[in-house]
Amino acid sequence: xxxxxxxxxxxxxxxxxxxxxxxxxxxxxxxxxxxxxxxxxxxxxxxxxxxxxxxxxxxxxxxxxxxxxxxxxxxxxx
Length: 78
Prior knowledge:
Structural class: mainly beta
Number of helices: 0
Number of strands: 2
Low-confidence stretches: 1-14
Strand order of the largest sheet: 1-2
Number of domains: 1
Oligomer: single chain
Distance between the termini: 57 Å
Largest sheet: 2 strands, antiparallel
Mean pLDDT: 78
Radius of gyration: 17 Å
Order of helices and strands: EE
């Protein structure tokens, strides 16, 4: 068969370890207050813009459905 696109892979193929490759910097684009549908707990929904990078094989490091943990750091307002 034809060679697969190196940017396409399954979640099981790549394990991102704690390293410089596991840290992504981005910008919050939207902050929306929402209520949790089940508990009614007030939550905050963040929409972020994070540039994706590729590993040494040309595969993207972030992909749809990948579980992530985010740390939000606020900047002082002018």
